[in-house]
Amino acid sequence: MGAAQVRIAIPGGNGVTGRAVRAALRGRGADAVPLGRADRVRDAAAGCAAAYLIAPNMHPDEPALVGGWLDGLRAAGVGRVVYHSVASPYVPAMPHHLGKARSEDLVRRSGLRWTILQPGAYLQNLDLSGPVRVPYDVHAPFGFADLAEIAEVAATVLTGPGHEGATYELASRTGTVAQLAAEAGTTAERVPGPSGRGAWFDAMFGYYDAHGLPAGTRTLDALLGRAS
Question: In this protein, which residues make up the domain named NAD(P)-binding (predicted)?
């Protein structure tokens, strides 16, 4: 089946990541069908060849959400699923990462043909137009992911062969917040917490402060067909 004939459901596809994946799929001639979290996946995904699952980063019960989507996809006869996870999902110090780790387990045991993508922190989450202030160590190591490149990888695995049963950790570049800021001609500093955004965010920033979120770039380079 050529890409022009493929219809792909995207539960959670109305957010920033979903819009990027939809654009990448359209660029390959595929028909992307975004679904809201409240949509009946069984009905909306009927006739789709595959699905790309995007849960909110801080969903209070992501395994239940993903499990419901998988039930709907099976009922709709969709045999192929790609799950948008996160780099280093099994981190007990970060509850929302653990939710994605448990969801990965559901995907692997779903009976569907699956692929899992584990992107690093988005480059687009940093505003480099002026001094950068973040609630964690600006010298902590990260594998940063470019949203457009993650979307192109998603389109690649959704429309091409050879990716079933694969788990891909994805970063576009490695570095620190301080390095990115310096490259943009500005400064970066760590601000004291708590962040005021809740316990899960504070746990995440505390982990970043101590460990960063490293991820390698070779897998993404290979999937996009470019030299490392």
Answer: 38-159
